[in-house]
Design a protein that fits this description.
This protein is mostly helical. The chain has three helices and no strands. α2 packs across α3.
Length: about 80
């Protein structure tokens, strides 16, 4: 059987308030327009993403799409900073 938890009356220590960093429900529900493309990837790359997707219980195509989107966001930000 499992061991019974024994609670104590110790002080909890210091607390600090952190800002809300989570996206709103509207942002989570937002689906960006997508375009289907055909692309040939190396077997090594696909195997890697399939393996990692399995570990994180998600789809490998979604991981690849998010990687490309993150790259685009970074490049767009870099271009904006260069123009300023």
């Amino acid at each position: 059987m499992s061991k019974k938890i024994q609670y104590t009356d110790e002080p909890l220590g210091e607390f600090r308030v952190i800002s809300d960093f989570l996206p709103s429900p509207e942002e989570l529900a937002f689906r960006e327009e997508s375009v289907k493309v055909t692309i040939a990837l190396s077997k090594k790359s696909v195997d890697f993403f399939k393996s990692e997707a399995g570990k994180h219980h998600t789809q490998y195509q979604r991981m690849i799409r998010q990687l490309i989107d993150a790259y685009v966001d970074t490049q767009e930000q870099a271009l904006t900073n260069r123009k300023s």
